[in-house]
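Sharing a chain and its predicted structure for anyone who wants a worked example. Both blocks are below, sequence first, tokens second.
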Amino acid sequence: MNKLKKGDSVIVIAGKDKGKKGEVIKVMDNGKVLITDVNLVKKHVKPNPNKEETGGIIEREMPLDASNIMIYNPISKKADKVGFKFLENGKKGKSI
């Protein structure tokens, strides 16, 4: 079971975007995570007349390593560690 999943609120703890908060868009198999409005880069795009796309410079999110982010707890307004425990129905769940 992964510690992060789509829709989790996270905070960056290392790197150029340290301290930024965002929501997980996608968790990749290679240990990388896409987060909204974090790790933005400018990408040069060529125009493609077949798809009716104009060229130019666009800003998009790039993946961050999962070790550089933690779950954000809005109650304590800090980053929290994630643990796992078994619920009453016998399923495994996240605990903060």
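Comments welcome. The beta strands are 9-12, 21-27, 32-35, 40-45, 56-61, 64-65, 69-73, 78-80, 83-86, 92-95.
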